[in-house]
């Protein structure tokens, strides 16, 4: 994915501010804002407006840190470019044209169905946009930052797990050593704890859910099943369950967050749910299968949406139904 030029970050910020500065309720499904050289299209604008605090969005966008857009990489083949608002409440993230069209044509009807449940695990999206000029088209989503609601800053994060339920290439180098080092530092209450990142095979090695009540584990499994069933119905794959632990002083219990001991809490959310199992993904599946790009007892991540759903659910059942 090509990096978005600085001018695009500046322009989309300016146009989004204009878009949300309109006070009257907009009824059109898709709304267009135009400057001299740029055009911004906001998909399903009226529906998204029901999910947001308009003034809060405007204030946050005034602080968008487009000077230093970041590349988020948890070991994936592709990196996603995004920028935080300076208050870290929202993320403006680049998506592909294919993902933009998938939401427009198909996924929107499933997305609004899922988030109708206030306790849903999906990291909420608040807007999807196309920015177009004479030379280029760029596509963005405005999303919540899972950390923000519970006042969790980067320096307070202990671990992040990105879990897909797959096995092939889902392991982190030197994870065991890093995990043991972190556990020792936590026991001694060290002031600085290095961030631990893990994937599916790493997660199997630890007893992460041992402090969760049986009721909480059952609720979480039911929520994972319910939402992954809907995602499969929408032909969606390649999504992840992100599990974040960190020091959280003020929080409320809920499906998203579980408060554990010593001010350590766990935030759970489903991310990266814009990928359709389309013809490109089918070719990727066949290529990796034909050329044996995984061990015989492992499955590649790129599989059809129903297989992905079943594997996703089975993976978490082994932890949550003990």
TrEMBL record:
Example of a GO cellular component annotation carried by this entry: plasma membrane
InterPro entries: PInositol-4-P-4/5-kinase_core, PInositol-4/5-P-5/4-kinase
Residue ranges constituting the PIPK domain according to the UniProt record: 1-320
A Gene Ontology BP annotation from the UniProt entry: phosphatidylinositol phosphate biosynthetic process
Origin: domain of life: Eukaryota
PROSITE patterns linked to this entry: PIPK (PS51455)
GO terms, molecular function: 1-phosphatidylinositol-4-phosphate 5-kinase activity; ATP binding
Keywords: ATP-binding, Kinase, Nucleotide-binding, Transferase
PANTHER family: PHOSPHATIDYLINOSITOL 5-PHOSPHATE 4-KINASE, ISOFORM A, PHOSPHATIDYLINOSITOL-4-PHOSPHATE 5-KINASE
Name of the featured protein: PIPK domain-containing protein
